[in-house]
Design brief:
Blueprint: H1 9-75, H2 79-103, H3 112-138, H4 142-149, H5 152-210
């Protein structure tokens, strides 16, 4: 006869209850820390990564709009056309600044600040060149304004700004996708561990009770 058969029922119950309690505490502790981590990762994705993607996407659009209205202004033949294009250009610049300010607090991934500095610095220099071209245009020097706007140095600044913004967007997209995948993996693993340990608790209690 096994030793368990010789254990009084009260003590046997105590052992079973103690084992179940230990497993429950262990499972509860694991569940708490695991799901707290999952919650933190989910919050980071929804509160940081996704807003960053939205802001950087809008920044890219604003840069494109500024360039489009810059070139359109050079083609205007009437004061009304020029006024309209300058207004749209200013709206695009305002959108750029608004989204840039909204984006800055969300910078957090490794290398992201360097990309932000790259595209923002390049675009600031492009805007300076654009402003000089607009001043030349206002003084009737259309040819000089056109030369400045299509100069290799000006195009280089624009390309560097767009490349930096695109790289920043891709960094946020890749990082948030990786975080999302890790969150999913952690959730699946936690589900299986909770299931297995719960079954173990039930099996342990039944086995001890049957002895």
């Amino acid at each position: 006869m096994s030793a368990l058969h010789n254990i009084p029922i009260a003590r046997k119950f105590l052992y079973a209850f103690g084992l179940v309690c230990i497993l429950c505490v262990t499972l509860g502790t694991y569940t708490f820390f695991t799901f707290r981590n999952i919650s933190a990762q989910s919050a980071d994705i929804s509160e940081n990564a996704f807003p960053s993607l939205v802001y950087v996407g809008k920044i890219q659009v604003a840069i494109d709009r500024v360039r489009r209205w810059d070139l359109g202004t050079l083609l205007c033949q009437t004061p009304a056309c020029t006024t309209k294009h300058l207004e749209e250009r200013q709206n695009a610049l305002n959108d750029y600044q608004t989204n840039l300010k909204g984006y800055i607090p969300f910078i957090r991934y490794p290398g992201e600040r360097e990309l932000y500095q790259k595209f923002s610095s390049a675009f600031d220099q492009y805007v300076e060149a654009s402003n000089r071209a607009q001043a030349l245009l206002a003084n009737g020097k259309t040819g000089d304004a056109l030369d400045l706007m299509v100069a290799d140095s000006t195009l280089g600044l624009l390309n560097r700004a767009l490349e930096g913004a695109t790289a920043d967007f891709e960094l946020n997209a890749t990082s948030s996708a990786a975080e999302s995948h890790q969150t999913t993996v952690s959730g699946v693993r936690a589900t299986w561990i909770n299931t297995v340990v719960s079954l173990l608790i039930v099996a342990s209690a039944l086995w001890l009770e049957s002895r």
